[in-house]
Design a protein that fits this description.
The complex is a heterodimer of chains A (109) and B (574). Chain A is built from 2 helices and 8 strands; from the N terminus they run βαββββαβββ. With 574 residues, chain B is mostly helical. The two termini of chain B are 50 Å apart. The chains are: A alpha+beta (109), B mainly alpha (574).
Amino acid sequence: MKRVEAIIRPERLGEVASALEGAGLHGFTISDVRGHGRAPEKTGEYRGNAYEMLVSHKLLVALFVEDDEVDKALGAIASGAVTGQVGDGLVAVSEVVSMYRISGAITGS
Amino acid sequence: MLRPLIVAALAAALLLPVLFRRQRRRAGLRAGALTPKFRKRLVITMVLSVLMLVVGLVGIAGADNGDSNGATTGISKTEVNAVVVPGRTQNATDHAQSAVIAHDHLAINFEWLMIGGVLVLFMQAGFALVETGFTRAKNAAHTMMMNLVIFALGVVGWFTVGYALMFGSVSNPGLGITSLASGAHIGDWQLISHSGFFLAGRAYDVGILAFFFFQLVFMDATATIPTGAMAERFHFKGFIFWGLFASMILYPVYGNWVWGGGWLSQLGVLGPKWGHGALDFAGSGVVHAMGGVAAFWGAKILGPRIGKFDKDGNPRAIPGHHLPMAFLGTFVLLVGWMGFNGASTFAATDFRFTIVIVNTILASAFGCLTTMFVMWWKYGKPDPSMTCNGLLAGLVAITAPCAFVAPWAACVIGTVAGVLVVLTVVWMDHKAKVDDPVGAVAVHGANGLWGVIALGLFADGTYGNGFNGVAGNVKGLFYGDVSQLWAQLTSAVTLVIWCSLACLLFFTILKRAGILRSSEAAEIAGLDMPEMGALAYPDFLEAQGSVFYSTGHNGFVELEPSDARSTREEVGAS
């Protein structure tokens, strides 16, 4: 069992979701996050004084997959989230010790 | 003669409990703790208070009232003769018809005054939205409270003292108002009026109350302007005193000199005989420059918000939390300004009000566009908050000259205002180092003074016959009368001197008393919780003081760990 976490552009959520669905992976969780990566942050001007945003808005998409589904998940997320510009985000895969469905059935590795 | 006694009795009735409380505090008694000695004193104080209240109120009730039911207003001989065709002999029927016409003449004027007054009253909402939109979410409840409560404080101050000082000796045949009593004079020069306190006696009159309401909402505009410049750090206790000071003393004194028949308005008939004396049609000076200059001293003595200037004194941007709110406020002010300027004719029968309204619109549009293009050119983007300020700057500048100038001049006045507002905002940030979150000093101060002076330049001699007792229309410098400009300059200089002295004294006293500025911990946490006890946006974590932007390389607010701790403690304790 693996946990796949991707930090993506908020406006790409629709594409990522349909790519995951298309790959047969049902269900994911998102969180609103803010962060700073390699992309330059936006700068503004207010009443004659400049300011810059410290962080920009991103979405954190998380899903749990079987070990053999990891490549499918990575491919789906990458195809949905990519724009080719700086700031497209990243994906990380981590080991899950165990996972339980709250409705009672237990799956896990 | 009885009136000062009545006022004294009322004031004493209100003050006695305060004195008693001070005595208790000196004796080291906490609230709620009563020794037999103090219980006795409490009873005596309360009885005395009630007695004096009764004396005061009975005195007011028993005084000789004005026309309190409207039965006689508009049918006096002078008022009727004013509408009679000259040179025609009248029989009884003619006279009765003339009386009806005179009554209706006043009726339409009252109605116009009330409509205008309600529009101006709604400008309070505009000020509240602009000021709150331009400041941060963590102070939103505090800023809104100031804008609501200033209205109520202003009403109290205006009712008790303000109106009497400013308009006690004013008369206006178009509203059926006659002077309550002559003011205090030095020689022929009037210094102040002093009749109509508590709207008692002859001030209890339909005409005077119509005028009272219209002037009340103007005074409230002045009182609310500095709360924007002082927002996000003005202690609410100090603010309460400001509301009373502004409505009782600061505004009425200069207002009396220009609008209440005082010495500035007499410059045309006495002494140097300059033009029509100091003129200010709807209050660029009396209302706006007054508020703007007070805002400057308030913000200066208060000091900048934490984080506004970096260690080298360079200004930083502190973006307001809700620009759409500020835009809505700007529109509300624009609409309200139609009443502010338009109804300042005090008469719907004075058709000049249509020109006034168009001039007002023209100046606002030219101010808005000028500021937008100046910001676009200088800083690369058409800055939204400054564009709002530019529109308001045009409105402020046209407020004094709106009735006396041609439409083209209104465009010029608005354009100059649009440049002036940008220059003043930059000057405030970079030279004066005074922190004004909403641009009140630039919009109301600088452009208020510009409006007063612009009248002396552009007045075109088509209007103003008989103003301040001077025959003939008002002409400015460009139409051949330089003396009107001298009157306007005298008025502007007097305004700055009076307002600066009074405000320096007042704000310094508040500072010494320790109620001018909120505590540093409260300011960092946002004033909503420490001072109001309620958040404006409890559902949104980000509205509670966290920031996601920077103005320099070192982050936004440099907080020592101890500051952060004291912030939490204070918030937790209160």
